[in-house]
Amino acid sequence: MNAPWKSGMPSGRDQFAAYLCDEASLDVLRPIAIEMGWQPEKCNKGGLRNAVQSLSITASPNILMVDLSESGDPLNDINALAEVCEPGTIVVAVGQVNDVRLYRDLIASGIHDYLLKPLSPGQVRDALSQAQAVFAAPKNADAATAKQHISTAVIGTRGGVGASTLATSLAWLFSADSRLPTALLDLDIHFGTGALSLDLEPGRGLTDAIENPSRIDGLFIERAMIRANDNLAILSAEAPINAPLMTDGAAFVQLEEEFRQAFEMTVIDMPRNMLINFPQLLGDVNVVVIVTELTLASARDSIRILSWLKSNAPHVKTIVVANKVQPGVAEISKADFEASIEARINLAIPYDIKAASNAAKLGQTFADANRSSKAGIAMRELARLVIGSFDGDEGVPAGKPSLLGKFDLKAMLPRKDKAKGAAAAATS
Question: What PANTHER family is this protein classified in (predicted)?
Answer without folding.
Answer: SEPTUM SITE-DETERMINING PROTEIN MIND HOMOLOG, CHLOROPLASTIC (PTHR43384:SF6), SEPTUM SITE-DETERMINING PROTEIN MIND HOMOLOG, CHLOROPLASTIC-RELATED (PTHR43384)
